[in-house]
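ASSEMBLY PREDICTION REQUEST
Request ID: AP-0331
Submitted by: J.K., bench scientist
Number of chains: two
Total residues: 998
Priority: normal
Notes: Please return the full assembly, not individual chains.
Input sequences:
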Amino acid sequence: MKNRILSVCLIFGAALAFLPSAAPGQETALPAAGNPGLRYEIWVELDAAGKMLAGKEEIIWTNPTRDAVPDMLLHLYWNAFKNEASAYMREAAAESRSVRGPAPDDGEWGWIDVSDIRLADGTDLKPAFGFVTPDGPDAPDDQTVGRVLFPAPVQPGESVHLRIEFKSKIPRTVARSGYYKNSFFIGQWFPKPGVYEEGKGWNCHAYHLNSEFFADFADFVVHITVPRGFVIGSSGKSVETRTDESAGTTTTTFRQSMVHDFAWMADPRYLKIERDFIAAKEVTAREYEDIAELLGLPIEEVRLPDVKMTLLIAPEHKGQIDRHFKALRAALKYYGLWYGPYPYETVTMVDPPFRTASGGMEYPTLFTAGTQVLASKNQLSPEMVIIHEFGHGYWYGLVANNEFEAAWLDEGFNTYSTTRVLAVAYGPGALPLFFKGFPLDWFLRVPKIFDFETNRIAAINTVRFDPVTAWSWQFYHRMSYSMNVYMRAATLLSTLEGLLGEPAWSRIMRTYHMRYRFRHPAKSDFVAVVNEVAGKDMTWFFDELVDGTRPFDYGVDGLASVKVPARLRGVFDANGTREEWTEEKIEKLEAAGPSESGTPGTMYRTTVKIRRYGDARIGGDARIEVLVRFKDGTTETRTWDGQGRWTRLEFIKPVEAESAQIDPRGVWLIDENLANNSRGTDGVRRNVVKLMTQLLFSVQFVLHFFGSWS
Amino acid sequence: MGVIKAIVNGLGITARKPKVLVILYVINLVFAAAVAFPFLAIVQSELGHSFLGSSVRPLDLMWLGEAALKHGDALPALIGGLAVGGLLYLALHIFLNGGLVGRLLDREGPATLAAFAGDSGRYFWRYVRLFLMSLVFYVLALGVFMELVSGLFRPLADGALTEWLPLILSNLHFLVALLLLSIVHMIVDYARIAVVADEERRVLKALRHALTFLRKRFFRAWSIYLLIAAGTVAGTVIFSIVLGRLGAPAVAVVAAALVGMQIYVLFRIWIRMLFVAAQAEFYRSHPY
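STATUS: Completed
Returned structure:
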């Protein structure tokens, strides 16, 4: 291993780290607490009865670019729930009812009003404030992005200090935010600047149905006032709590550095439980050694820190407290070991309040899980959500790609990572099937599956709709969005892992994560890391399979073994004479046996035809591996570059072939037809007979059921 | 006659008429094989020569996902075929009901195919009319009554503080629907029996016989129905447990699964016979 100088770039700055024993391409140093160019201090009060928020916000933004910036674009996400003219609601209306979810009922709309906006010196900017639609004319009345014009451009390195007052009506259960009775989940709730990109301006998209978020890393101080008796959970660390007896309120102050969002919840019924993730108890010395060796890092670089874990859970889910913490510990352990130590002191896990539509969502240092009162231990339902949403702390929270423009970089990476953690920590889980709220596996034998299986099904069924890399709201439909950016992307990453092998892949993921912690990488950054660490150009993979919409399917089209005659028939000239070899003569020759005839004995020509059924092609040095097994137990392996539509492979052996199989190591998980990857000469398989038996039985049963109503 | 005695007598009758069971089973098997053939052909063509066929499981998502992709376009036709098959079977079953009820009510009579077919033909049109009338009952029960129950439950569920109440109400709703269905089913069963037992040509009158009969001894009749239904559930649970414990698909295991599934189909058909026999015994012991 070579010594290298590696860089770890932090937001708005860069630091160099000299790492004496790192593998090529490895980033090893933990980023220090940064000094982001953005600071928030927010005071917000919950009016639980009126379902309103009243807030004041101070934003200090330092221009990190070489541009003179004349304005600021602010996300006002809750205006997506203000009326049916918002981009969100228009896009929802275009979807089928089953996927778009219910629209707010009358009187239940949500919104955010910027009632005052001025500079710290008191200059009123309200007259220079208005709504803009940066995503084009499709939703001209959308009010989810506001623009404020500064009296003078903010010069490079200069700061602007804004004071904003806002009032918000909390929506009733729309998406990710809302209330139900006295339960509140508050996300995407404050005016939040977009991300300024040098030479391009503000990256600040409208709130779309099929998109999540993008913001800059910042230091937050948030003072949350709620009616006394409410249990509160929030991003960041609680540093102070004050009770105002006369007002009947409690104010809690939370602080957190280097995060790009801030969410909280309040509910008077909730239980709050705190436990510690103690790394020394969770990770053995052997595990540290193994991962350090795999990653080519010193053990000290892979050691995990302790973390304070907080769970806010509904009383009716009290019996699942241990289950929640176990899943969170597994996530902290494996994400930490594989990608890098969790850099914050706290993580808060929220059991989503009933009917607030807030489950399964990530925010920095806080995430929402999701379970039900009747939960089977075999169904890894809360575990999957917990691991996934915590994992977003890594893929979105720390490596903060633009979720509007490249959602697959967090959803796909995180779905892939969730699948791995679940497999390692739990193994396969029963299909999450319910009947009337009861897990079906309580009554029936429900198959257990790994998540990669479901990921693959989605992948092969959505490839034709869109590339994984489409912008979130530009997918064909919501299903294409979610199945592509989550599951197809995860399947592609699994495929890439198989292609590159575990050591290289582990280092790629670690390097990418650590290099782009506290930054906003794009696809090209990941491709560059893959090429660098793998030591070869894998760009073709991304061009063909990630950016492409062409199905991938290589298969065995034919397998045949035929006896090779001892001589060919016909008239042959040899040694000045002409002789005709007839069928009879050849048969006699063969009957004489190899020693008499001088031939090598009975030989068989095995022909294997391999086809590229799909339009997608492999590239680079990748090859389609073909394994042919013969009846004497011997095998032969050949490869094909897979560029043409088909190839024919021939083998001359003294035995017939038993089977031919492409991709015997199961690398190409993205292949949409695994059934045609192999072909045997035997036509009856016990599992197939069993499956057919079950099919017949099912039909018998259905018919009997039909008949019983006559 | 008491509830238990009716069931015991019913058991005796079904034991004396195994040919009825065989006739119904063979028809079910042949019909099912015809309906399932396209599905079986797909499975064999896809997996018969593939290694995937050696590892495929029931509800195997890896393969089902592929099959959905490959045969997605044909899915409406396949489901349509299944639905048409189901409807045809329904019509066939109306025909078979005549034989079933006729032979079971004829205690000492033969259960030959000819006798079975004779009864099927004799009662067919009466049972068709009865079936059409039963639809009115089903619509009233599931459409009107259950909608009323839903209307009663909805405000409670909408105002729930936790998920417990909607869960309980949803299950309560389902239970009410099941009980209601059992009552309708039972009424139609007794009407069918009345057609044969009373040699009643007018179906409406047979239905009135059944209703009059049930009005006087509803809970005993319902107990017979529910006890046999409970037996069905118990049998299904045992079947599930036994089949669930079969191991890897060795030849013997596949054969055992095949036999086990067919035994279960036989069991369900026999249960259908028991419903008719026990209820017929009960009906005939209390002339309306």
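REVIEWER COMMENTS: The first helix of chain B runs from residue 3 to 16.
SIGN-OFF: pending second reviewer
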